[in-house]
Amino acid sequence: MVYNLFFHPLARVPGPLWWRATRLGFIRSLVSGNLVHDVRKFHERYGDVVRTAPNEVSFAQEDAWHDAFASQRGRKPLPRNPTFFKAPPGQPDNLITTVDANANARMRQVVMPALTERALVKQEPTVQGYADLLVVRLMERATATENAKEAVVINVVDWFNWFAFDLVGDLALGESFGCLRDTRHHPWVTMIFNSLKGGAAIWRRICSLWGRTVAD
């Protein structure tokens, strides 16, 4: 902790004391689901550059994205940290998980034709179709009550998740998940959300057990 606070190469980067000294603050915020909110508060207090862990810095500047990930003349993108970018055991690398710069460039060349302006314009009818369906379903839900003065509660988070999964499913897999059509989560969508919650619960349990061990 002394090294992290006073002798680490990032020692001069501002940030909350506990988070700069140890990663426990970061982990606790992550497993509690407050990481995004906490980091935003830190940026409001310390500025655009905040140290959120002994070896991690958060940037609230657009230029940082280009400096870290964009290839520039005479300089390659920064290497990916294998701690965060690593395929699950037994699974092949993909565009998101690979740490090999050459493999990443090759994969990007394969998918780039699908992301050109001309290619995206061709997908506009599909995007517009799901946007129209979203509006129609919301109107149906808003007018479902017979009493015009009666309030209608709508969980907008679910509706936008349904829109996103239906659209991505159609564009990437050639078939919609049917969430907007059925106004409910598809089993796969439910599985994804449950896996995220389960992962956070596992981390919370690990940190709890680790904390008890240290205390003992």
Blueprint (SSEs and pairs):
Layout: H1 2-7, H2 17-21, H3 24-31, H4 35-46, E1 49-53, E2 56-59, H5 62-69, H6 101-111, H7 117-122, H8 124-142, H9 156-173, H10 179-182, H11 187-215
Antiparallel strand pairs: 1-2
Helix pairs in contact: 3-11, 8-9
User: Which structural class do the helices and strands define?
Assistant: mainly alpha
Q: Write out the strand line-up for the largest beta sheet, numbering strands in chain order.
A: 1-2
The fraction of residues in strands falls at under 5%
Task: Based on Cα principal axes, name the global outline.
Answer: globular
Order of helices and strands: HHHHEEHHHHHHH
Q: How many beta-strand runs?
A: 2
The DSSP helix count reads: 11
- Biggest β-sheet: count, sense, barrel? 2 strands, antiparallel
The N- to C-terminal Cα distance equals 20 Å
Briefly, what is this?
The chain is mainly α and 216 residues long. It is built from 11 helices and 2 strands.
List keywords for this structure.
single chain; 216 residues; mainly alpha; two-stranded antiparallel sheet; 11 helices; 58% helix; 4% strand; globular; disordered C terminus
